[in-house]
Amino acid sequence: MSREIWETAQKCRKTVRRTDTLGEANPLTGLVFCADCGAKLYNHRQPYPKTYVNEKGYTCTRSSRDVYACSTYSLTGRRFDRQCTQHQIRTVLLREAALAAIKAASGAVKTNEAEFVAKLRETSAIRQEETVKTHKQKISQGNKRIAELDKLIKLIYEDNVGGKLSDKRFAALSEEYEQEQAELEQIAQLQSELNAFNADTDRTDKFIEIVKRYTDFSELTAPMIAKFIEKIVVHEADKSSGERVQKVDVYLNYIGKFDAPEPEFTPEQIVAEQTARLKRERCRDAQRRYVARKREQAAMATVTV
What we know:
This protein is of the alpha+beta class. The protein has eight helices and nine strands.
């Protein structure tokens, strides 16, 4: 068993995926997180019959429910349980966003691998090999000076104990050396950036290797989710424009967040979208008029009584 397969298996084992009334576990469970509070989003699924008779005797039609919602937002109606907003999103939209990111990243690799690697390097803290050399020099010099300061502090301590150095002078030198040591601790940040650069190189190679194993990206499968998806971050929906817009960030294994390019719509698709938007607006207006009319009728009935 390769190291990669072992790591994937351990990652899958960490998340408990319980089967529900649909008889299967959702492969995205444990990978979806809230953008505001950082908690996991829980999957809520309920298979409703296509038609049913409600308590008033009316025949109704209702589709099945398959959504994700923030785990710190109670869906039981108990408002005191709510620590965050709902962040509700349909599972089908999550799968579409995940597949779009995978397709975009994989397509970029297969179209121009060198350009893809260069684009990932642009987001790294260290962008050029020359910077790497500079970091290595600073780290080497800093470590050397820290070792020298350790020796100096030890010497002045021995001189102070032996009476060769006054307490006042010892305190001044000791403070000066310790301050210089604290300033040199910035090399830890340089080392961290250097390690990140090296790790980025390894991770990019691993991602490209995974892409080359797949030839069919038409459908998002459970193995594909395990191989490609690190996590999905869901933002709260924005309705300020009159349309429900929700941002979803997809993080891929080894390369992190990857923004899929906006699709280019044909003139026919643009016209269809505009027609659908006008239809939704008319439906919302009709619903508002219906609610207002019902409220007026209820108010008149109350006055009459």
